[in-house]
Write a structure and sequence with these properties.
- It is a single chain.
- The protein is α+β, with helices and mostly antiparallel strands.
- The chain has two domains: 284 residues, Nucleotidyltransferase, domain 5; 52 residues, no CATH class.
- It has eleven helices and 18 strands.
- The strands form three sheets. Strands 1-18-17-6-8-7-3-4-2-5 form a ten-stranded mixed sheet. Strands 9, 10, 11, 12, 15 and 16 form a six-stranded mixed sheet that branches. Strands 13-14 form a two-stranded antiparallel ribbon.
- Strand 10 and strand 11 form a beta hairpin.
- 45% of the residues are buried.
Length: 351
């Protein structure tokens, strides 16, 4: 039996136009810290900075519209960087992809078909680009789409070979997933292999609301403008400190207030359609927002379970489902193109 090799990556959804070359500029030798530099990706004569550290060099783009899932150079840059991270030192790969869309996008057949068509138009086929000075060549054989929280269901139920790995009774049980991301909160219910529509839906909410609350408070109190990505970093910090003209400002009271507000909003959304949730055999939480709001969510739904590594769970599950449907592909990739981060998992047959 072939061994399956699992690799993964998370690329912060931050893109900008600029250059990391500072020439001979120097801050001297008083103290030298480690500076995080973003990826530099070039294709067809265009250059973008991607990921951690973009704000140190240029203004970042922050597209929040759903159409960015299928088109736009931001999405292309983020996707290509994520794929490159999975190739390893070979810088080459042939793969099939299962990409995740938000639930309310998949519920709109016309919109989902349009976005998938645009995505395939540039993603399927051969990809050639330069990343951080190295050349990459990637061939994408097929691109399919699923709802993002379906990935969490597959991560929970399937193994890396794409086979059901839980008790057979769980296939018939009513299972619900709350996928709490940066820009969306998705509800997804499955029973007996079918989607249960009355418990399924999506909202444009999520940790973005907490980030925007923090942005407003910091601007009002200290006159400092934060990007959504910077605000998200403060929300996730154990001891968030803002350094500005007033000195070193501890932001923990503001971040806690913002997270409690976001948790209340998510809880109200779930309670409206799920009630107390005790009718479900399994209630699963996934997404980076669920990791951040874990205590709040489990306080309201104490019988719920936050999946292991909830940030990557959707991508892992999509890859496991890909292993099931793309039987002839040596490498399958689950891609979760989140508004907070692009998450990707590759499962490769080690022949």
């Amino acid at each position: 039996m072939s061994k399956i090799i699992e690799t993964s990556t998370i690329i912060p959804s931050v893109v900008g136009i600029g250059d990391i070359n500072l020439g001979l500029l120097s801050a001297g030798k008083l103290r030298r810290g480690t500076q995080e530099t973003p990826h530099v990706i070039v294709w067809n004569g265009t250059q973008f900075l991607v990921g951690t550290g973009v704000e140190q060099f240029t203004r970042s783009h922050e597209r929040m519209d759903m159409e960015r899932l299928g088109e736009g150079q931001d999405a292309q840059a983020l996707t290509r960087v994520a794929l490159a991270e999975l190739t390893g030192p070979a810088h080459q790969m042939t793969a099939s992809i299962v990409v995740g869309f938000p639930v309310h996008v998949m519920q709109d057949k016309a919109l989902a078909s349009q976005i998938l068509r645009k995505l395939r138009s540039w993603l399927a086929g051969e990809q050639r680009f330069t990343l951080d000075g190295a050349d990459y060549q990637i061939l994408i054989e097929s691109v399919q789409a699923m709802a993002q929280p379906a990935g969490a269901f597959f991560a929970w139920g399937l193994n890396n070979a794409g086979k059901w790995a839980r008790p057979a009774a769980d296939l018939d049980a009513l299972v619900v997933i709350c996928d709490n991301g940066f820009n969306t909160v998705d509800k997804f219910a499955v029973q007996g292999g079918n989607v249960v529509g009355k418990f399924t839906g999506g909202e444009t909410a999520g940790i973005r609301r907490a980030a925007e609350t923090l942005i407003h408070e910091v601007k009002t109190k200290y006159g400092v403008n934060l990007t959504r990505h910077e605000a998200d970093q403060y929300l996730r910090a154990g001891k968030p400190v803002l350094s500005c003209w007033q000195g070193e400002i501890e932001l923990l009271p503001l971040t806690q207030q913002a997270l409690e507000s976001a948790a209340a909003q998510v809880g109200d959304l779930l309670e409206t359609s799920w009630g107390n949730g005790k009718q479900f055999r399994h209630l699963l939480f996934t997404g980076g927002g669920s990791e951040l709001l874990k205590q709040h969510l489990l306080r309201r739904y104490p019988h719920g379970v936050v999946l292991s590594n909830p940030v990557l769970a959707n991508a892992l599950g999509l890859a496991r489902y890909g292993r099931r449907i793309f039987k002839s592909s040596r490498t399958v990739i689950g891609l979760d193109p989140g508004f907070g981060g692009f998450k990707a998992v590759a499962l490769t047959l080690d022949a």
